[in-house]
Amino acid sequence: MYLRLAVILFIGALISGASLAQSPPQPTLETLVAKNVEAKGGADAIKALQSLRLSGKMLVNEGQIEFTYTQIKKRPDEVRTELVLQGMTVIQAYDGKEGWRVSPFQGRKDPEKMSADDTKSLIEDAEIDGPLVDWKAKGSTVEYIGTEDVDGTMAHKLKVVRKNGDVNFVYLDPDHFLEIRVLTQRVEQGAQVEVETDLGDYEKINGVFIPFSEEAGRKGSPDKQKIIIEKAEPNVPVDDAVFHFPATPSK
Question: How many CB atoms lie within 10 A of CB 1?
Fold first, then answer.
């Protein structure tokens, strides 16, 4: 009886050991970040991309409303987005210090400065290379959590905590190591907000892969805005003045 039990335990140990041996090792945080940088085109190509102008369209209200979309980014941390519809232009801009906007569809045609909470999303928009590239220099902390299902893809999930306290959960495609989803958690006006952004249709621009499709909205909400990029122009000359709050004309 003892001998039979010992044999069973020995066989069980062999099976368990074989299963463990067949399980692929979990990648390290450093490996995933390095693969993400390489997948985008490499550190040199990313750093050489000093400005980027994106043109296309934004679809809202389940695609019933279409804006003409333009966004300009310039290192180190400037961005300006314009949405045009029926002759009216929505503007949101950040110059590295403060954000401002023009909201004609809300009856405000004059530029107004944005609150610190409202500016948080613009700070992320200003990044040309995303939250993982040079994360230490940006003052962030990053943790690899494991894998999670993203619409049928077991994506690598990384938690990025920015120096302002905002959190990005970055999902990397397991084959290409590019971002396919970013879930952002931040506090706005005293309330916790979760925004889910799906990224795809990557194209190589000046040696760097850029997503040409972006769908974003509150997590769990069916009403999301979709941005479709039709043209991307690298290293365009940009006057810093377009990012700054417009000067008040002298009387």
Answer: 5
Q: Which residues of the chain carry a pLDDT beneath 70?
A: 1-24, 248-251
What does each C-alpha distance from 1 to 5, 14, 179 come to in angstroms? 6, 20, 57
Instruction: Using alpha carbons only, give the angle 150, 184, 94 rounded to the nearest 5 degrees.
Output: 135
Q: Do 143 and 29 meet the contact criterion of CB atoms below 8 Å apart?
A: yes
Helix (H, G, I), strand (E, B) or coil at 238: coil
What count of other Cβ atoms lies within 10 Å of the Cβ of residue 134?
A: 16
Q: How far is CA 15 from CA 19, 26, 179, in A?
A: 6, 21, 37
Contact yes or no for 214/227 (Cβ under 8 A):
yes
Q: Which amino acid is at 106?
A: Q
pLDDT of residue 13: 46
Assign 3-class secondary structure to 17-51.
HHHHHHCCCCCCHHHHHHHHHHHHCCHHHHHHCCE
pLDDT at 189: 78
Burial class (CB in 10 A: 0-12, 13-18, 19+), 173: buried
Name the helix (H) or strand (E) containing 203: strand 191-205
C-alpha dihedral sign at 30, 33, 36, 42: negative
pLDDT at 249: 54
**pLDDT at position 96:** 95
Q: Quickly tell me which residue has 């009387």 as its tokens.
A: 251
